[in-house]
Design brief:
The chain is 72% helix and 0% strand. It is mainly α and 108 residues long.
Amino acid sequence: MSIDFNSPDVRVSYLSEKLDGLLDGINESYGTVLLDELILRLEHTISEFNNEVKELMDCLKANTEKKEELLDKIKSGEFGTPDQVEEETVPPRELSEWEKRLEKIDKK
């Protein structure tokens, strides 16, 4: 059984079918208000999840494209030989108190 969860109508009907059986006893007490609220919350959760997965996949695709470009540049020799590439200078950062204590211990 394949269900296309991309369509909001299909999601609502699927959730309604599954929840009707579970809520028979509750339905007598609370009516459709509980079911409607539950469906709204589930729809929101599914929509939010789909958006997060889409963002994740877009980010993954962009990173993969950057890595492929970098690999192509390395393969083509655009960066030159390792001897020609200058080392990037990183300014020294200040050590934390914990790192300073560890350094003192190592010197002893």
